[in-house]
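Sample A.
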Amino acid sequence: MKYLHAHHAGNFADVHKHVTLLALLAAMQRKPKGLLYLDTHAGRGTYDLDQPGVTTGEAGDGVLRLMRAVADGSGAAGAAPAEITDYIEAVRSEQRTRGSRQAYPGSPALMLNRLRDVDRALLIEAQQDEFIALRREFERQPRTRLRHGDGFAALASELPPVERRALVLIDPPYEETREDYRRVEAGLQAALQRFETGVLVVWYPIKLGRDAANWRRAVVDCVKPRSVRFSELWRFPLDSRVGLNGSGLAIVNPPYLFDERMRAWLPWLAGVLDPAHAGGCGVLDS
């Protein structure tokens, strides 16, 4: 079976990714000039966390745990940081709109709900069934294009945008791990050759610590001399041989002082999503 975003909707990695994306968008929107949001592997955009045979229940240790912590003030260090409460409000807004407490917005829904009149979006999905669902959901969304095809190819064909500002999410399935990593590196290089100031975000799985360290070095090498920060959150020790120890994000050309804000809210998030304190988190340069 092909990887589907729905299988892991709302899990701890989704939460880590989505909190960061919304915070990045908010930071970029402090400037009035418009931007392009480009999602290379968009999925279907919205999910039902109680859909039999599709979702796996991982949201219980992810978004649902976080929502309870924010609601009852049980976070590891008191009141939730603004970036966390902003994300929770975005999820609740989607649930109110759909009249369901099991509704969960993927990155397309989260980001489209926050775009301004001067902003645009391009959502790309390769899997046919997922694209049909994406199109059904967003085909009438203003200032939004949908494309069925290879998201990596768009990193060369769609950049630079007319706005000369872009936030790009690269979130492949990593089914063929070596090939996906190779395509990510090539995609970053292609994007930066055409548009060196774009804010590029790559999600990557953390399975073993040494592999994550090697990947960070590879990203630093392929984006030089541009700035890159890594945000990592793991729920198990980095030498554990579980399916997924943690979630990583490589952020190329991060907005000014964004890493300082991450260092403020990431430990709070990790404290909620890892109540056993078996893992950890960090904002790294390489």
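Sample B.
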Amino acid sequence: MKKTISLWFALAFGVAIIHRAAAEDTNTVLTLAPPSNELWAHGIGDGFKSSAQSFGIEAGASYGFAILGGSERHDLALVNLSYSHMLGGVRGEGHFYRGNLEFRAELFGGSQFSPRDEWVVGLSPHLRYDFATGTRLVPFFDLGMGVTGTGIAAPDLSGGFQFNLECGPGAYWFITDRLALTGEARFMHISCADISSPNLGLNTVLGLVGISYFF
């Protein structure tokens, strides 16, 4: 009987020691390996890590101008879906332009609502430079060029296949460390580079607002 009691006592003591050791190991792991920040180089708004990516959606409308050869104003309503990836880490340390270069792929679609109703779709690679401000406001400048399909025709376009050129400023406002409201203004030019005629061109200024998720 005494041997049985001693055996159970020794077994209970051993289990207690093992349990305590396991708990200490768990605490050590949690202390030495806290969750890592995969997005920001230092802190929110202070430059992205090279691994940072995003998905975004924007919508907006444009006001057209009969300039640069175009004979009509073309007003558009568009929705824009995008994916982006940083091209390296923070650049320009110690300079006012400190920030990140961002590659973007954008798919847009919508319609011309003035002077006539016509469809517009397009796909564009973009380069965007994000300025590291150390705040939740991250301004940027964007430049893109791609292809467009449209029903817009004479007198300014020949319809069908076109090219697009877009550029302009904007900003992210990070409401959390990963979710940002976006706003931007772009000049957009659409023409076919004289592949077909007429090729006077469509010129418009586009305002966009939306949301982006970074990961």
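B remarks: The CA atoms of residues 166 and 188 lie 5 Å apart. DSSP finds one helix and eight strands in the chain.
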